[in-house]
Structures are given as structure tokens and as C-alpha cells.
Amino acid sequence: MLTTIIRPTKGTAKILGFDVQQKSLEVKKRIGFMPDVPGFYGEMKASELLNFYADFYRIPKIDREKKVEDLLKMMQLDEFKNKKVKTFSRGMKQKLGFASSLINDPEVLILDEPTIGLDPSTTHFFKKSIKSLNEKGVTVFLSSHILSDVQALCNKVGIIDHGKIIAVDTIDSLSKKISSTSNKKIVVTFEDITDKAINAVKKIDGVLSIKKDKSSNKIEIEIDSKKPIIPKINKTLVNNDVNITSIETKEMNLEDIFLSLVGEK
Q: Which CATH entry fits the domain spanning 183-246: 2.60.40.10, 3.40.50.170, 3.30.70.100, 3.40.50.10610?
């Protein structure tokens, strides 16, 4: 709807002050859009394709050649500019889709799952490129289910549940709001621990659950945030001959926030 491809059944939306229904052409001029699976004419070469898209925006031919060259270089595709798109890998097609979304120097860039199905190296490239564009003043609207990408890139998030926006804020603010009303998790690192010591901690009033990490010397303890029981946990472990290395409060990540608001179902 924001890209003006489909019309909303009700409500209004504006981008840069332009109504997406009433001023759709003005919106199109100012935005870039990359779908999760970009579709191309496979017989076209990469440079031909970008020239084709540039024509939509009536970019003068005198400027177009340099623009296309710069974008292909930015996307690390300049050596493949004369290759047919149908020979490209998924990562290369994603990069070409990214390049096509920037052909008109958009003020707002709308990206739908830009890193899905990509290898770690290409994912890192996309994240770095998105951050660089944002630092240059481009507003990036990212739609994604990959919450680690959202956490790494976005300074503000909106969470949708069953078609309704249930939260819009910075990740830090959401974390603080939820932490104040939900249970807290602490991580205890130790040199050695016995089942007897773990069972003793379980009996403390306010301890809700304990998970032992089998691959490391750590236990994660969920506690009632309203009860100041961390000193009691520390004392109980020491009394049970546990040599504690550290006790830390586990910070909420975006996945924790999402599940707290939406629920695991």
C-alpha cells in the first residue's frame, strides 16, 4: 500500500507529505522499492536492466550511464554488467534489485526482507549498505521477520499482530517498558555446579525457572522482577560450594520483546 501498488480498503497514509492514493505519482518519484524476490527480464544484461529502469524516471542519457556504472560498482556487480540476469545467483539478483531501487536517488527506501535466503557475507554487505544510505539521509523502511537484522539496523520499530500495530517505539524504550512489568532473567556463570545446588535455588520464593546450558558453565534463572532475590540466589549457591564467576541480568533482545507483546502462539 505504501508503494502505491495496491489500494487500501480504508484509512490514509502519507509519504513525505504526499497521500499514497491521491498523489501516487509524486510518491513513486520519491521512493525506492525492493520486493523480497525481485523479478527481472532474464534475457537482459545487468546494465541494460538498470538503463531500462532509469528510463521510467526519465533520467537524462547524459547522466544515466554514470549512474548505472556507479550502482553496479556499489553492488559489486560491475564485472558482471554484460552478463544476462538469468545467469545470476540469488545473491546477485538481490544486489541488482537493490541497485534498481536506488536508480532514482530515493528519499525513502522501502525494503521487504532484503536479506532472506542470503549467505552471511552478502547479508553483511546489505546491512552495511543500508546503514550507509541511512547515514546519507535516506529514510529506510524495513519490513522483515529476521529480528536480528531489525535489531542491528533500525532505530525505531513497529510490531504488527493480526494486522494491527501493537507497538511503535525504539527498541530500548520497548525493552524498558516490558522489563518493568515482566519477569527478569539472570545468567550465572560458575566453575562447577551440582544438581543439589540447582535444586536449592529452585526452592527460593520468586525463582520461576532454571535452565542449564549444557555447552557452557552457565545457568539462566527466570525470577519475579518484583522480588529482590538475587543476593539470596548468590548466597544459596555459595553455601552449596558453587564457585561463581559472574551474575548478570540478561538484556532483552527484539525477539524477547516481540514474544512478550505478541505471545508465543
A: 3.30.70.100
